[in-house]
Amino acid sequence: MTDATLNLGWERIWREQGSRWELQEPQAEVVALVARLKAEGKRRVHDLGCGLGRHLLLLAAEGFQASGSDISPEAVSRCQRRLAESSLSATVTRSEMDAIPEEDGCLDCVIAWNVVYHATVEGILRTLRGVHGKLKPGGYFFGTFASTSHSSCDLSRREAEEGLAERLEADTYIRPHDTEGDKALVHHYTTEEELRERLLAGFEVLSLEHLSSRWLVLARKGM
Ligand SMILES: C[S@@+](CC[C@H](N)C(=O)[O-])C[C@H]1O[C@@H](n2cnc3c(N)ncnc32)[C@H](O)[C@@H]1O
């Protein structure tokens, strides 16, 4: 992300509306995953694109050796403050999603809720190769991907035809005029076929669900 795009999308949302977003609860799907990780004795979990840390706080409170990273300086500082206020311990680093600041082969799980699709296909592949490298054998990747059935995929396609949005490649758009939401940041929309055959090709896919126009994936690195 360049300095120019840093002021768009999530950095701006976190700065302008961060206090409201701090009230957001962890996703029920992540809560269920955390119970599974605990039951399996997993210890080291990274929250990629952790935002304000709703999932990182949960992981730290549940006793995991937790870490998080995010490109947004505002997210990182709010997340660190929230951890300190709750007397919880976790490392939070500002970094790009394709450069998880952990040693290779050390993580039991990487969680990436609504993050990885903020990239072109090459960027997503780089991020998932990075995740794969940081996981232990048998480690999990739990993440969401935007679906081509999402209404904003269609809207972006139509706006690109009218010259209002930018089409970077197939199903990958920027809507520069979106000053309210996050669509001024790149979004890649994906199909089940692309997920299984290309993006997650290095993983064993344990489950793949289509929920509210997004894909929810639990995948595992081979042993
Ligand atoms: C929809 S928010 C999700 C935050 C968090 N995962 C949650 O569920 O509360 C997306 C997050 O991804 C981060 N992000 C976007 N592009 C990124 C990149 N290239 N590298 C790292 N983080 C990125 C944003 O800063 C933002 O905090």
How would you summarize what this structure contains?
The chain has 223 residues and is α/β, with parallel strands linked by helices. Helices cover 37% and strands 27% of the residues.
Secondary-structure topology with pairs:
Layout: H1 3-6, H2 9-21, H3 28-39, E1 44-48, H4 54-61, E2 65-70, H5 73-85, E3 91-94, E4 107-112, H6 121-134, E5 135-147, H7 151-161, E6 166-169, E7 172-174, E8 187-190, H8 192-199, E9 204-211, E10 214-220
Parallel strand pairs: 1-2, 1-4, 2-3, 4-5, 5-8
Antiparallel strand pairs: 5-10, 6-7, 7-8, 9-10
The structure holds S-adenosylmethionine.
S-adenosylmethionine (SAM) is lined by residues 1, 10, 49-51, 54, 70-72, 75, 96-97, 113-115, 118.
Name the descriptors.
223 residues, alpha/beta, Rossmann fold, 10-stranded mixed sheet, 37% helix, globular, binds S-adenosylmethionine
Descriptive overview:
Strands 1, 2, 3, 4, 5, 6, 7, 8, 9 and 10 form a ten-stranded mixed beta sheet that branches. The longest helix is centred in the middle third of the chain and has 14 residues, at 121-134. Helix 2 (9-21) runs parallel beside helix 5 (73-85). This protein has helices at residues 3-6, 9-21, 28-39, 54-61, 73-85, 121-134, 151-161, 192-199; strands at residues 44-48, 65-70, 91-94, 107-112, 135-147, 166-169, 172-174, 187-190, 204-211, 214-220. It is built from eight helices and ten strands. It has one domain (3-220): Rossmann fold, CATH 3.40.50. It is globular. 37% of the residues lie in helices and 27% in strands. It is of the alpha/beta class and 223 residues long. Strand 9 (204-211) and strand 10 form a beta hairpin. The protein binds S-adenosylmethionine. S-adenosylmethionine (SAM) is lined by residues 1, 10, 49-51, 54, 70-72, 75, 96-97, 113-115, 118.
